[in-house]
TrEMBL record:
Major localization class: membrane
InterPro entries xrefs: AA_ABC_transptr_permease_3TM (IPR010065), ArtM/GltK/GlnP/TcyL/YhdX-like (IPR043429), MetI-like (IPR000515), MetI-like_sf (IPR035906)
A Pfam entry, by short name: BPD_transp_1
Compartments it resides in: Cell inner membrane; Cell membrane
The protein, known as: Amino acid ABC transporter permease
């Protein structure tokens, strides 16, 4: 009589994975105890013995044994909004909320269309810019040199993505052109830019470019840096998209040609949708890297969220609370990056189901 298969229980899987031998049992015990010790100390430092209010700052100075979150209570506006005028910071908050809302709506399948997703992001970005810059609808103008904190980080990321993604598609198409001159020239440009450090590109666009451009073409330093960053993003993303295109069976595009489809119809309806599906994991990874590397702009004088964090403990009152400030900044980065990664995982699962 055949034996009936029994699904292993959770206890069975744990025993098989972590306690199947003496060595596995010893390693599980040691590292489990170490993990519990680390968790216990973090909870004790960050929650149980922590000082949460700026009014109790003296407890931090007298060694409470816990985190001094009072610095966040006192300086959170500086971290989130930087040098933005205090009485206008509601605009900066609404601008950040607009971009977050656009990101959330991008997860809705209704917007998974080139025209809709483009219109959505352009609308969100314009709303963000109008709120931040002012000068319209009775809003007081606030110039770019007074932008800072999380809002500046989000602005750089959104602008780089909006400008860089169309460039990446164009670069990828030019590199796979049937004309050797165009393909090789584009290849040299992409490989050259990818071989350079991002910081050197930012520095060149921020500092060096004004010396070789006429005054009317120079523009604000912030926008020059965004253009340089978008160019860097586009070169990396172009290779990701080109890799997705190369994964397509050659017969699909040939069949589209045989049916009489024009070049742009083949690219728009056959090649690019499948290329983006194939290149989804590295594309999400590229967005994550782009968001994290916005912190590099602090080196060339911008007051983004990390630089704002430095300023939050950069006075005599809170100069001892750098760990707490950096922990708060790290939490901000974690929230955005984790949301991007989870969205990428959701898309992969949904597309995998659609392929079945």
């Amino acid at each position: 009589m055949a034996k009936t298969y029994v699904e292993p229980t959770l206890i069975d899987r744990i025993r098989a994975d972590y306690f199947s031998s003496r060595m596995d049992t010893a390693m599980t015990t040691v590292f489990g105890a170490l993990a519990l010790w680390v968790i216990y100390n973090l909870v004790s430092w960050g929650i149980v013995n922590a000082v949460w209010s700026a009014e109790n700052r003296d407890l931090c100075a007298h060694g409470s044994g816990g985190a001094c979150w009072g610095v966040i209570d006192s300086r959170w506006r500086l971290i989130l909004f930087g040098l933005y005028p205090y009485e206008e910071q509601w605009r900066s908050a609404l601008a950040c909320l607009a971009i977050v809302l656009v990101g959330g709506l991008s997860c809705v399948p209704y917007f998974w269309n080139a025209k809709r997703i483009t219109a959505l992001w352009l609308t969100g970005f314009v709303t963000f810019y109008v709120l931040m810059r002012g000068g319209y609808f009775g809003l007081t103008p606030v110039f770019e040199q007074n932008w800072g904190g999380l809002s500046l980080t989000i602005f750089i990321f959104a602008a780089t993505s909006l400008l860089g993604m169309p460039l990446a598609i164009i670069f990828a198409l030019l590199r796979r052109s049937e004309l050797p001159v165009i393909a090789k020239t584009m290849g040299i440009i992409i490989d050259t830019i990818r071989s350079l450090p991002l910081l050197s590109i930012m520095f060149t666009f921020a500092i060096v470019l004004p010396f070789v451009l006429p005054d009317w073409l120079t523009g604000d330093k912030l926008y020059r840096v965004i253009v340089g960053y978008a160019l860097f993003f586009a070169c990396y993303q172009a290779e990701i998209i080109r890799g997705g295109m190369q994964a397509l069976p050659a017969g699909q595009e040939e069949a589209a040609k045989a049916l009489g489809m024009g070049y742009w119809h083949r690219i728009g309806y056959i090649v690019l949708p499948q290329a983006f599906r194939n290149a989804l994991p590295p594309t999400i990874n590229q967005f994550v890297i782009t968001f994290k590397e916005t912190s590099l702009v602090a080196i060339i004088g911008f007051f983004e969220v990390v630089k704002s964090g430095d300023a939050a403990f950069g006075n005599a009152e809170w100069n001892f609370a750098h760990v707490e400030v950096y922990s708060f900044v790290a939490l901000i980065y974690f929230v955005f990056v984790f949301a991007l990664s989870r969205y990428g995982a959701y898309l992969e699962r949904r597309l995998a189901v659609a392929e079945r």
